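User: Sequence recovery, please. Input:
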């Protein structure tokens, strides 16, 4: 089997490539050049896609004795990830660029080119498992990346390999050291890879300019001002710079962003609690569920879904029991058993059956439908 190993220059992708070689496959390494200015995207352990990373990936390929290439995907990354990121914030939503990169770059642009060149699969260093073609959580819960892979379709997963899913990060680093890979102790990258200094608000301001507006409490009273509603996200408490306290004197949190009026709405922590989440554009990673924990499954006569599962609403968020209802290719509603806080439009709702990924959908709205007596 011919395997294209995506090598970012980090320890995970290097060990993943090494395990692909050990499996006896015909492996070629490729590093994706995603930045128009590679030297600008790293500050310490922040960021990625730098010249340093490409050199680290090449050195790892040399140790493994495999061919190595650099493919320039900078224009595609700019359009599908960076520009999308800016547009989503401008629209009052909070995107997940790692999820978008997996969807549009690694398992669309990269996979499509790999298949066109005669490769059978793409191997990556993601911490996730494939069992009988179905995506499952990694055994290392702290490093699990199934959430950001839940946008993948079954036909894409059929050409994916995740060699690290049965290992912890400590085991991966130990193996890298034993193989004399220089990246064994290289720090993980953090935050958003194309915002090396970690200043998301500054990054957005440079692209969208100042757009002054009001910060208002849930009751409509004006508590302060801002230079751009795009600089806020649901659940945010720090950096609000309110000029007066809320009606109750309690700390205020961002409840919603209203791009049409350029208004940021804040309220109490209790106001953040939601139990109903609406989503669109479902992707059924394991195929449309025919049945689930509550036994209801799909009503083929009405083409409606209704099933129980577990849901995760942000990359490192809590997992909640929920009932999903809607249509397989339209809008879904998740009704949570227990309320959660700080759920933002633009994020992904990922559905699980135990550790198996059922699918995902994009959150458009969240609210509290029930109030305890």
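Assistant: Recovered sequence (373 residues):
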């Amino acid at each position: 089997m011919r395997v294209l190993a995506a090598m970012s220059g980090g320890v995970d992708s290097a060990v993943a490539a090494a395990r692909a070689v050990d499996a006896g496959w015909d492996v070629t390494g490729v590093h994706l050049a995603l930045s128009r200015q590679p030297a600008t995207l790293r500050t310490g352990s922040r960021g990625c896609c730098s010249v340093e990373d490409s050199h680290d990936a090449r050195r790892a390929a040399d140790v493994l004795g495999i061919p190595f290439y650099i493919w320039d995907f900078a224009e595609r990354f700019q359009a599908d990830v960076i520009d999308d990121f800016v547009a989503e914030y401008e629209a009052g939503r909070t995107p997940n660029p790692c999820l978008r990169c997996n969807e549009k770059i690694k398992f669309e642009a990269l996979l499509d080119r790999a298949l066109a060149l005669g490769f059978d699969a793409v191997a990556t260093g993601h911490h996730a498992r494939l069992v009988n073609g179905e995506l499952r959580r990694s055994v290392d819960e702290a490093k699990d990346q199934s959430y950001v892979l839940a946008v993948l379709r079954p036909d894409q997963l059929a050409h994916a390999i995740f060699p690290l899913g049965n290992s912890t990060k400590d085991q991966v680093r130990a193996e890298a050291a034993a193989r004399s890979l220089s990246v064994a102790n290289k720090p993980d990258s953090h935050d958003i890879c194309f915002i090396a200094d970690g200043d998301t608000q500054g990054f957005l301001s440079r692209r969208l300019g100042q757009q002054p507006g009001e910060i208002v409490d849930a009751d409509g009273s004006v508590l302060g001002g801002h230079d751009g509603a795009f600089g806020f996200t649901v659940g945010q408490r720090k950096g609000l710079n309110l000029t007066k306290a809320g009606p109750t004197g309690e700390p205020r949190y961002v409840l919603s962003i209203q791009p049409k009026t350029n208004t940021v709405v804040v309220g109490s922590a209790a106001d953040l609690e939601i139990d109903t989440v609406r989503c669109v554009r479902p992707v059924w990673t394991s195929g449309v569920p025919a049945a689930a924990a509550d036994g209801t499954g799909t009503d083929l006569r009405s083409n409606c879904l209704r099933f129980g599962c577990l849901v995760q609403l942000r990359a490192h968020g809590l997992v909640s029991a929920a009932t999903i209802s809607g249509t397989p290719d339209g809008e879904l509603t998740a009704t949570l058993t227990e309320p959660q806080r700080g759920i933002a439009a633009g994020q992904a709702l990922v559905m699980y059956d135990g550790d198996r990924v059922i699918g995902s959908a994009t959150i458009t709205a969240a609210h509290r439908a029930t109030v305890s007596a």
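Residues 210-268 form a domain with the SH3 type barrels. fold (CATH 2.30.30.280).
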